[in-house]
Specification:
Elements lengths: L13 H5 L1 E4 L6 E4 L3 H38 L5 H8 L2 H5 L2 H15 L4 H4 L2 H31 L11 H24 L3 H10 L1 H7 L1 H15 L8 E4 L4 E8 L3 E6 L4 E5 L2 H4 L3 E2 L1 H6 L2 E10 L8 H10 L1 H4 L6 H4 L2 H14 L11 E5 L5 E10 L4 H17 L20
Antiparallel strand pairs: 1-2, 3-4, 3-7, 4-5, 5-6, 8-10, 9-10
Length: 417
């Protein structure tokens, strides 16, 4: 606080003439009266040196004790979260809070001098110390969020329910709180004052940050309803997205397509557009095979003795269940369908608890279509494609054996003039 320049009393000592200290209501409020600039500067220098020295000693002592205690506790198996916090230097970042608090508490000592220029340094010093404390707490809180993310990633449910979006929301909230606190300190206003002004600007903020707010809400819904996970295969028509989700952030979803290109999707797109998620296929353990084989309708006929004899020699087992004479009442296409049904039911890779249908599709002359509909127990892309190709190769390879012919559209260049 500012006082008036004291005048030395007659007959006093030289020190009394140069310096006079008056006590205040508490330990850090008092006045130092002096008419010597040199004494004032010397006092300020000594005071600053004492404050810095005390701050440095307290910083190193506090840091050493805190890290020693944390290090011992972190060695215990049950304190895994403490090890994560130590790796992210949470406690290292908390240590500067002690010297900042000392400087903030000692700043009124400088304000007790009666030299206006020097005394006026106390208030800015206290404000800077308060701002630095806010900054220190912010850094420690952000480091703590990083340790939470690391520790959570070791849980089995982390891939199913990622918390990255929630941590990003918490980060934004921390930055907003820190900004309001710093502005309140610098302008010497209550935080409620700025919150009142912020509420008045809500409509404008909604317009400016529309995409961010939509992404914020969408991220919460995606996480709350378990609509998307890292590792899911999704298709988003209209956004050239057909691949695996590799990252779920607050505003964006990152998808790696199967051509290794990266697509960034706004989070709200997954709520406002149709999205195909293949996770259900993976979790069910069965992946569908749906393939149509088109035949020339002119080759569909009832089997003769030669065809039956050939089938008896080559594919007798699947047709053995037919009653005597039943084979003659079926067409070669019907026998082919019967064979495929029996063959795929015996296949070790086909899921027998899921539908297996070999059906004839509605068709028009000169084409007859037969559809293979079944599920394989392999959901991984490469093994699934290999299995499907082998099974279809077998189905196509047997077509001539049944006296059938696949339909082929005549090429215009092959027509006779």
């Amino acid at each position: 606080m500012l006082g008036e320049v004291g005048s030395p009393t007659m007959g006093g000592s030289m020190l009394d003439k140069a310096l006079r200290i008056e006590g205040g209501p508490d330990w850090h409020h008092f006045q130092v009266h002096t008419d010597s600039t040199f004494v004032a500067v010397l006092l300020v220098a000594a005071l600053l040196l004492a404050i810095l020295l005390a701050s440095a000693i307290c910083y190193y002592v506090t840091r050493s004790i805190m890290l020693m205690i944390v290090g011992r506790l972190a060695r215990q198996e049950r304190h895994k979260w403490l090890r994560a916090a130590k790796r992210h230097k949470v406690f290292h970042r908390l240590a500067p809070l002690v010297p900042a608090a000392i400087i903030y508490a000692a700043a009124p000592l400088i304000s007790g001098l009666t030299f206006p220029l020097i005394a006026s340094l106390g208030h800015p010093l206290a404000m800077l110390a308060a701002c630095y404390m806010v900054y220190t707490l912010l850094r420690a809180a952000l480091a703590f969020l990083g340790s939470v993310s690391e520790r959570y990633s070791h849980f089995p449910s982390s891939s199913a329910r990622p918390i990255k979006s929630f941590l990003q929301i918490a980060t934004i909230v921390l930055y907003v709180i820190a900004l309001i606190a710093v502005i309140s300190v610098l302008l010497e206003r209550s935080p409620a004052y700025f919150l009142t002004g912020l509420s008045a600007m809500t409509a404008l903020l909604i317009i400016i940050f529309r995409d961010s707010l939509l992404g914020f809400v969408a991220s919460i819904q995606l996480a709350a309803y378990d609509m998307l996970r890292v590792g899911d295969w999704i298709e988003v028509p209209g956004f050239v997205a057909d691949g695996t989700v590799i990252d779920i952030a607050l505003n964006t979803i990152k998808v790696r397509n199967f051509d290794n290109s990266i697509v960034m999707l706004p989070s709200y797109v997954l709520l406002t557009n149709s999205v195909k998620n293949w996770r259900g296929m993976t979790e069910s353990g069965g992946r569908r095979v749906k393939h149509a084989i088109h035949f020339d309708a002119d080759t569909v006929r009832f089997p003769d003795e030669a065809l039956l004899a050939r089938l008896h020699d080559d594919v007798n087992r699947p047709l053995a269940a037919l009653a005597p004479g039943d084979a003659r009442r079926r067409t070669n296409l019907g026998l082919y369908r019967l064979y495929l049904t029996a063959h795929f039911r015996d296949h070790p890779a086909v899921r027998h608890d899921m539908p297996l249908v070999i059906r004839q599709l509605q068709s028009s002359q000169p084409v007859v279509a037969l559809e293979i509909f079944l599920y394989l127990d392999e959901t991984r892309w490469e093994p699934y494609e290999n299995l499907q190709s082998d099974m279809l190769d077998h189905a196509y390879g047997l077509v001539p054996l049944f006296g059938l012919r696949c339909w082929q559209q005549e090429c215009p260049s092959s027509r006779q003039p």
